[in-house]
Design goal:
This protein folds into two domains: about 1-90, no CATH class; about 95-300, MetI-like (MetI-like fold, Orthogonal Bundle). Helix 5 runs antiparallel to helix 10 (about 220-240), helix 8 (about 175-205) crosses helix 10 and helix 9 packs antiparallel against helix 10. The termini are close together. It has helices at about 1-30, 35-40, 45-55, 60-75, 90-125, 130-140, 145-160, 175-205, 205-215, 220-240, 250-255, 260-270, 275-300. With about 300 residues, the protein is an all-alpha fold.
């Protein structure tokens, strides 16, 4: 296992270099000029050329790329084009922390509600509980954010007067409840359906029938043989969802006034603010690679038969 982890960690810089190279090339050769977007359509061409020279955008591609990577390794992610004088690192990391807290709360709701619901539906296949659970999952999955958010506001703010409707106070503040529900309910539906399918597949395996034949209690069979093996595909989904925690949720953050990274990412794309786009791309890539490695390690605890060379 240790050799496998080390091998994966050694491959991480190679993967990040490929991701950064592709993103950097798209930013340089793709449509749109960041300086032109910053100066608007009536910009003086001489001023645009001078700013491009000041920012080093007139240099050859390889020179720009190597210079960026060298600074990024030292923790310098550059300076924002749109927010003049603002280091990218300071702009991003505070907002990413907010988005990560919101995403973590939403993921917690998805797992806590989705896994037991899927387990119940699988164990009660064909009963009214199965039908009700699957129908509820489909309902939550089909409802977009701009429908779910107003409904929750109508219920918890206008009718019950239980929750504030706007702002951000952190992971343990009441203002996180509604946006976490908005993001978490579709995840509940997805995990419920996936868990149900996984349980139905595991129930038909020989080792489950053997466990029943040995006279093991129903709870032991469910916890030790059904649940543990059914969680393997769930671990994949949940583990990879950890990589999305740093992406932010533009619509939800906008509706509830959450200062996350979603708005910053969208604004940066429209403004062609490539230092921020590059930094976000690298951070998301690191998050997904790390989450994928974590999932592979967790597999060995859920299923002892899984071994890595």
């Amino acid at each position: 296992m240790l050799a496998y982890v080390v091998k994966r960690l050694l491959w991480m810089p190679v993967l990040l270099c490929l991701v950064s190279l592709i993103t950097f090339a798209l930013g340089l050769y793709g449509p749109g000029d960041p300086v032109q977007a910053l100066m608007k359509q009536h910009a003086d061409p001489a001023v645009v050329a001078r700013i491009r020279q000041q920012r080093g955008l007139d240099r050859p591609f390889l020179v720009q790329y190597v210079d960026y990577i060298g600074k990024a390794i030292r923790g310098d992610l550059g300076e924002s084009y749109k927010y003049r004088g603002q280091p990218v690192r300071e702009l991003i990391f505070k907002k990413i922390g907010v988005s990560a807290q919101l995403g973590l709360a939403a993921l917690f709701i998805s797992v806590v509600l989705g896994v037991p619901s899927g387990l119940l539906a699988g164990l009660k296949q064909g009963t009214w509980l199965d039908t009700l659970t699957v129908s509820g999952a489909l309902l939550f999955m089909s409802m977009p954010v701009f429908i779910t958010a107003p409904l929750l506001m109508l219920l918890f703010v206008l009718q019950l007067h239980l929750l504030p409707s706007y702002g951000w106070g952190g992971l343990f503040d009441a203002r996180i409840v509604m946006p976490a529900l908005v993001l978490g309910l579709p995840g509940v539906a997805s995990l419920t359906r996936l868990m149900r399918v996984s349980v139905l597949e595991v129930i038909g395996q020989d080792y489950v029938r053997t466990a029943h034949a040995k006279g093991l209690s129903r709870n032991v069979v469910i916890n030790r043989h059904i649940l543990r093996n059914a969680l393997i595909p769930i671990t994949t989904v949940v583990g990879l969802s950890l990589g999305t925690l740093v992406e932010g949720a533009f619509v939800t953050e906008g509706i509830f006034g959450i200062p996350g990274v979603g708005r910053l990412a969208v604004d940066s794309i429209y403004a062609r603010d490539y230092p921020i786009i590059m930094a976000l791309t690298l951070i998301v890539a690191v998050a997904f690679v790390s989450a994928n490695l974590l999932v592979d390690i967790l597999y060995t605890f859920l299923d002892p038969r899984i071994r890595y060379a």
